[in-house]
Amino acid sequence: MSARTRSLTHAHPTEVSLQDALDAVGDPVRRAILRELAGTPDWTRACGTFDLPVTKATRSHHFAVLRAAGLVEQRDEGPRRLNRLRRPEFDRRFPGLLDLILAEPATDRRSSA
């Protein structure tokens, strides 16, 4: 495990309040990240591969919010930071919430950023 990975803070969904979970999924960019992760196998998407209408620093902030809400787990492999949607764990804590988010039609994120 790299020093960079050790610096990541991951909340487990059981430690997250409903309000924190709702705050995390309230942003359209974060919902887009979740939808993209839901459609790919675990640990196959690096942060830089998401087509997001935000700067690199803002992208990092969005991933930090998702980690703090127990929605995403990240690990470093070489220079890439890979992601996993923590769907099983999150679904046990907040049944149905991710289903609602993932069923939402994708919109033009550029108009909401």
From TrEMBL:
Gene3D superfamilies: Winged helix-like DNA-binding domain superfamily/Winged helix DNA-binding domain (1.10.10.10). InterPro entries: ArsR-like_HTH (IPR011991), HTH_ArsR_DNA-bd_dom (IPR001845), HTH_MetalResp_TranReg (IPR051081), WH-like_DNA-bd_sf (IPR036388), WH_DNA-bd_sf (IPR036390). The keyword Transcription regulation applies. Keywords: DNA-binding, Transcription, Transcription regulation. CDD domains: HTH_ARSR (cd00090). Residues 20-99 form the HTH arsR-type domain. SUPFAM superfamilies: Winged helix' DNA-binding domain. PANTHER family: TRANSCRIPTIONAL REGULATOR, ARSR FAMILY, TRANSCRIPTIONAL REGULATORY PROTEIN. This is ArsR/SmtB family transcription factor. The lineage of its organism: Bacteria, Bacillati, Actinomycetota, Actinomycetes, Kitasatosporales.
